[in-house]
DNA sequence: TTAATCCTGTGACGATCGTCACAAAATTAC
DNA sequence: GTAATTTTGTGACGATCGTCACAGGATTAA
């Protein structure tokens, strides 16, 4: 839980007592590669703090898997719509490597947040960060071409390129795998 | 303020006292068409509740304006990254029509939230909705072609098509104005 | 009402992308 | 270590898209 505590302190003021009050909402869990953290049709009742490894969210459209996000160490993974509204998830979250997470249980978290203002503030900050990240990647598509989007990742998220395979990345960037391969070739020649 | 109060009640439990405590954070403001709610380089210290009219966010890239979001009645407009982190905004928010908003002042809001748990919860819910919306439109680009994105808006946000001009919409959908014009033509013929 | 400005449609053409097909390379399983 | 599987590279080709150019229609300002 060390990483999580550091993460929390980087976000907000958090006392020893708040940390104690938060404990009932927390549980550590391991996932093997290709295990589901969240399955399409399920209701998302958790925030997943990524301790080690990484996972991704993807839609299944006409049999094809389309990646919509990757979550690495110190990220929070969740379906924010389903978590907030209680409706069924339209997509999956799956481990891409052996994965260790700390699960925030929604019901317990809300209970703790009601009693402890710092926990409520923590929840708000987690969601805010999540929203910022969504906004960042949403903007990518409106501002840049496929080639420019790749460059953006190289500059701003080089870790992602290191760990995610070309095929998986292509899906995330919204282009065919062959196209990404050719973009990469074009770029290295220039 | 009637619309705002209804909006708040649709999001969360909110007592008469909480509403009173919130007042110091609120102020009503009118914008003319093409007035800036937020200018690139400014720090965003407000949440803008849209009471009537609509506005948009856009980046200025190489002299070209690229729309990234539209905000209509009962939406919250803000730069969530700048609002959260205190860093300068990289984009603009501008009124597309005569606009009436209720401004949530950040400092006053945080002060009120510290003292009133329901206000803290309201803030969290506003941000959550904002995140859900970002996620929705972010996903659009990863799952669908330009033509399918247009269809999605027709089905899920017909109001947007009614009020936003073709040129403005094209920028939001990430295609050239001419392309959107041709997509529309293709579709009406089939 | 008239002029100026903005918005939309359309043709031409080159650039980019998606799809299919198959081979090579890398990874995984046994 | 070998076989099976997955991932990546590449050619061909048709579809879509961006850009430039210009004309007509709609809207706005005086």
From TrEMBL, chains A, B:
Residues 29-113 form the Cyclic nucleotide-binding domain. This is CRP-like cAMP-binding protein. Gene3D superfamilies: Jelly Rolls (2.60.120.10). Pfam families: cNMP_binding (PF00027). It comes from Pedobacter cryoconitis. InterPro entries: cNMP-bd_dom, cNMP-bd_dom_sf, RmlC-like_jellyroll.
């Amino acid at each position: 839980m060390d990483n999580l505590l550091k993460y929390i302190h980087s976000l907000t003021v958090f006392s020893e007592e708040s940390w104690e009050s938060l404990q009932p909402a927390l549980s550590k869990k391991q996932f093997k590669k290709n295990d589901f953290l969240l399955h399409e049709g399920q209701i998302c009742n958790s925030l997943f703090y990524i301790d080690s490894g990484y996972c991704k969210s993807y839609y299944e459209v006409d049999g094809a898997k389309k990646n919509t996000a990757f979550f690495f160490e110190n990220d929070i993974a969740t379906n924010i719509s389903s978590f907030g509204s209680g409706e069924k998830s339209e997509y999956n979250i799956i481990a891409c490597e052996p994965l260790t997470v700390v699960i925030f249980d929604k019901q317990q978290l809300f209970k703790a947040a009601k009693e402890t203002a710092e926990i409520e503030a923590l929840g708000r900050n987690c969601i805010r960060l999540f929203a910022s990240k969504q906004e960042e990647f949403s903007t990518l598509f409106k501002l840049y071409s496929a080639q420019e989007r790749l460059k953006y990742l190289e500059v701003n998220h080089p870790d992602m390129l290191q760990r995610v395979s070309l095929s998986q990345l292509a899906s995330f960037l919204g282009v065919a795998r062959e196209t990404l391969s050719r973009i990469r070739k074009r770029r290295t020649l220039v």
